[in-house]
Specification:
The protein has 383 residues and is α/β, with parallel strands linked by helices. 54% of the residues lie in helices and 9% in strands. A 5-stranded parallel sheet has the order 4-7-8-1-9, covered by helices on one side. A hairpin with a 4-residue loop joins strand 2 and strand 3. Helix 9 crosses helix 10, helix 13 crosses helix 14 and helix 15 runs antiparallel to helix 16. The longest helix is centred in the last third of the chain and has 25 residues. The chain is elongated. The N and C termini lie far apart (67 Å). Bound molecules: zinc ion. The site of zinc ion has 8 residues, from helix 3.
Length: 383
């Protein structure tokens, strides 16, 4: 089964299967959409499926069998019909245009990594461009007859990396389609492709993956606990690779620090020094990405509090494992203005990107939160 290795993207999967069933397999496909949502995964599943010797076919579905020799080699990306093109490092002046042999080794690593998990970002170190030499090599190989039965599939990763020369050379390949060859271009920057290339490809737009599917996939892959997965998914912007980047972050620990910051800001007497101490302890002044994550964790916590305080219903909260502390928090501040808190945190994230001092941003944010959480309760008390 090839398609079940692709997370979500049901429309794209269905469309591709229908094209195979109806014998209308496109010669050139352009898979677009944000980074890390599975464009390479779709391309690989397609390549495996069209090369399977015993496909599982219905009126509308067409899937690989997973057990024939072709499927087994396709799963490892050791298949002469499946070729990957990706950016290579700059060639030193005075040397040949063709990639050096060390690059081939690095390219093998790209194949291995994609075969193991197509959602892990793959890029050869210091590689920025797909060069004309690579496109010429590709053209030569396509001109030869195939080494085995099936359909040759060329997967071009980050197609926007093609230089102007490479793009123009590639355009010729697109204009003269070969029998039994599909060219699959993947890009998260379609605006950087030549319009002439785009117009010769059938475009399929891939969508961000839902938080639920990302969380489930992280748990299935054994990468984290369910509670962590829900938290990570809410940060992932629909991208598996963004989600992976948070897996190593110890989100539970970060959240604990974020909640500690909130608690210190709501202390009674001495809250100012408590805030300053906690910010110095919990916030790394040099880690701006970490700072933004921490602000988002605080915002998520307060959003959950807002949900509980508004309806007392909890199915939609992100910090599901923190229900009791959240309920206590809500009970302690019945008139808190949560939307003002979240607004303050969003402003703070913008300030971090504007290079304002991390500690200053946090202290300001926490004082604003204090105002929005505690003051409305005081007013009520005194009125
Ligand atoms: Zn098979």
């Amino acid at each position: 089964m090839a398609w079940n290795s692709v997370i979500g993207q049901e429309d794209v999967k269905a469309m591709l299967q229908r094209s195979i069933v109806g014998n209308r397999i496109p010669h050139a496909l352009l898979l677009t959409g944000p980074r890390g949502i599975g464009k390479a995964a779709i391309a690989i599943a397609f390549a495996k499926t069209v090369n399977c010797s015993n496909p599982i076919v219905t009126d509308t579905t067409y899937d690989a069998c997973d057990v024939c020799p072709s499927c087994i080699r396709a799963a490892k990306l050791h298949h002469s019909n499946i070729q990957i093109v990706t950016a290579t490092p700059a060639v030193k002046a005075g040397t040949a245009e063709e990639p050096a042999s060390t690059v081939s080794e690095e390219l093998l690593e790209v194949y291995e990594s994609l075969a193991a998990d197509p959602y892990v970002p793959t890029r050869i170190e210091q590689a920025t461009q797909i060069r004309i030499g690579q496109i010429r090599t590709l053209k030569k190989s396509l001109a030869l007859s195939a080494a085995e039965e099936g359909r040759r599939v060329v997967i071009i990763l980050d197609a926007e990396d093609m230089t102007a020369e490479a793009s123009n050379a590639f355009l010729k390949t697109l204009e003269e389609p070969h029998d039994n060859v599909s060219l699959l271009l993947c890009t998260s920057h379609r605006e950087r492709l030549l319009p002439t290339i785009m117009s010769r490809c059938q475009e399929l737009t891939c969508s961000p993956i839902s938080d639920q599917l990302i969380a489930r996939s992280l748990v299935e892959k054994g990468m984290c606990t369910e509670a962590e997965a829900v938290l990570i998914a809410s940060f992932s912007e629909g991208s598996m690779s963004v989600a992976y980047s948070f897996v190593s972050e110890d989100m539970a620990q970060l959240r604990e620090q974020a909640v500690d910051l909130l608690r210190q800001s709501l202390k009674g007497r001495g809250y100012r020094s408590a805030i300053v101490d906690s910010v110095q302890k919990n916030c790394d002044a040099k880690n701006r990405k970490g700072a933004v994550t921490m602000l988002s964790l605080m915002a998520l916590w307060l959003r959950d509090a807002a949900v509980i305080s508004a309806s007392n219903e909890t199915p939609n909260i992100v910090n599901g494992d923190q229900l009791e502390p959240l309920k206590k928090f809500v009970a302690a501040f019945p008139n808190a203005n949560y939307s003002a808190c979240v607004k303050a945190l969003e402003q703070s994230a913008t300030d971090i990107y504007r290079n304002v001092s991390v500690h200053l941003v946090f202290i300001t944010a926490l004082l604003r939160i204090r105002d929005s959480v505690i003051t409305p309760n005081r007013i009520r008390q005194y009125s």
